[in-house]
């Protein structure tokens, strides 16, 4: 299981080494099946299955490449994003407003339940709350 160090970038050399080894293994396997000449239908089917397995392996190995390249890049420590303090503050305000709205909805539901105005009994719905489904 990958540790925090590997996810945060300190395992970058390990991941790059793994990528190179897997890439080499896929290339060797590709060379092997490309040199085979099937003589029967069964051999051709086996060769096709092997090619499919190698193609899937190549796709998975290639999926590692962006992580290796990102870990190699000094300026890409934040996944290619540029830190903008104003954008960060705007997102924090938006998150706080959404949290406040959700807390208000939860509080109004608790108040209604305490007062007997449970949504299933037909009590009025607050802002941002869907009406109860009466079809069931």
Automatic annotation (TrEMBL):
Name of the protein in its database record: Uncharacterized protein
Region (Disordered), start-end ranges: 68-90, 105-136
Compositionally biased tracts (Gly residues): 114-126
